[in-house]
Amino acid sequence: MQKKFDRGLERTRWLAGITVFAVLGLVGLLANPYVISLMTIVLLFTFLGQSWNLMLGIGGQLSIGHALFVGLGAYSVGVLYVKYGISPWVGLLTGMILAGSVGASIAWLSFRFEVRGIYFALLTIAAAEFARIMFSGWEFVGAMQGLFFAAPTGGIEISMLRGDARFYYFVALALAALGIIGTEFISRSYLGYVWRAMRDDESAARALGVRTFQHKILVISLSAATAAAGGGVLALVQGSIFPDSIMGMGLSVDVLIGPVVGGLGTTFGPLVGSLAAIPLNHLMSALGDSLRIPGLNNITYGVVLISVIWFLPDGIWPAIVRLCKAIQGPPTAWLWQSRKVEE
Amino acid sequence: MLSGALLAIDGLCVAYDGSCALNGVSLQIHKGELICVVGANGAGKTSLIRSISGIVRSSSGVIKMNGVDITGMPPWEICERGIAQVAEGRQIFGSLSVEENLLLGGALKRAKTGQSETLDFVYQLFEKLRERRGQLAGTLSGGEQQMLAIGRAIMSKPEVVMFDEPSIGLSPALTDVMFGVVKSLHEQGATVLLVEQNVAKSLALANRGYVLENGSIVLHGSSDELLTNPEIQRAYLGL
């Protein structure tokens, strides 16, 4: 077992990871407020993308309704904090438990009745839309008017998870790091190879004695809970919660763009994809405003997505890996080949 | 006869959307036996394996393992009772390493103790797999994948191993290697249910054989009896 991962490659990966996060840390200390706020969103969507990636990239279950879980996390933090003054830490935990249970229930219902694959994905959309419409009409959670957090007073309060933009940048950075390390850890564990086996061939895994029903519920529930954690922080960063934006179809799509563009089922894909897609979207949105071409960002988005799927169907990160392989010659190529998650 | 059998199947029927794949199949395997079920395409061979392993539900009939009724149990519980299968077309997990594929086979409760010894045993049996333990299983050749599928089944420390057409898609030379492996497993004490289209080769290996036609057992007997049966010679051996 200990020989499964090559030492040299291991070191390269750790070095690469540490370098990336050191640079991101410096960005947090030195960059201007615009970059900080943009990068906070990038890092949050890295984490959300990682949670979605866990479900499809490792567990093999497609969700196009992740906004449901993100929204549940956001509302748990929002309602507890805005209405009762309870610490967002409690809100995050509540949201994770709530979303995990809702995810497990949807999965249970769906797989109990043999709804799977693309039909399961449709079910996730239906569940998210159902929740969005319900929250839009629910006065207690602010209905369409939404919930607003009091503006931060400037000081950093760890116990209440409140602070300035820089503080939230580092919270998002910590989450992204946690997501990446967690994914790496899971995909190397027993659960990781059971889930990847299930993704490769569910009926073959079943024939080997894997309890696929339970494992599918577990992976979906875990993905939902982590998405809720991301959603809770997203709400704090944005300072407000509206059902249409936090539980809408748009958010579900935003969540999956990072991993799809970056590389499905890979550890670094969601980070690379979010880094590529989100700033581009903001840039094009600003350009569209100044050129008075509304929707320029969406058009560009579409073009970029189609190009990525056309030219790099497995995403940007695997393409980078292949490029490194080509540059560094045979010995490293062999090393890369021994990697499994990135392949 | 029924009482002494390790695996006993009685009147098994399987139907897909109303069309009958197995129609009242009965067979027994005793401990340490190697039996084969032969038949043409569509005779119901794969349905037989899939219903024993619980992947396909039978509409009637009883399957007993060690005297315990396992009919209708979920696949994982049947695996826990010691029935492993080497599926048709191998069904290797291509994005997992060779070793991960093997460990997955040994993830059952019954196989947890002494897992590393079992792994060693498999690597002794197939040196190629040891060499390629870290490699992605999808990059193995067809023959190596078949070895991996067998190794994975052994990892679960089964009492009965079911082979579903292990020779399919292999070259004649590799087919011989394959049958050699099945034979040596049997000689080491494994109980084997071999389902095959290759009638001559599998009967040569087996103690007893059953002939499956259109979902029913039409003949059974010792391998010698079957090999000399004029019907078999005409229909399957082309003599």
UniProtKB/TrEMBL annotation, chain B:
Limits of the ABC transporter domain: 7-239
Keywords: Amino-acid transport, ATP-binding, Nucleotide-binding, Transport
SUPFAM superfamilies documented for this protein: P-loop containing nucleoside triphosphate hydrolases
Domain of life: Bacteria
InterPro entries: AAA+_ATPase, ABC_transporter-like_ATP-bd, ABC_transporter-like_CS, BCAA_Transport_ATP-bd_LivF, P-loop_NTPase
UniProt-recorded Gene Ontology molecular function terms: ATP binding; ATP hydrolysis activity; branched-chain amino acid transmembrane transporter activity
Single Gene Ontology BP annotation: L-amino acid transport
Pfam families named among the record's database cross-references: ABC_tran
Gene3D superfamilies linked to this entry: P-loop containing nucleotide triphosphate hydrolases (3.40.50.300)
Keyword Ribonucleoprotein part of the UniProt annotation: no
Protein's job: Involved in beta-(1-->2)glucan export. Transmembrane domains (TMD) form a pore in the inner membrane and the ATP-binding domain (NBD) is responsible for energy generation.
Family per record: Belongs to the ABC transporter superfamily.
Protein name as annotated: ABC transporter ATP-binding protein
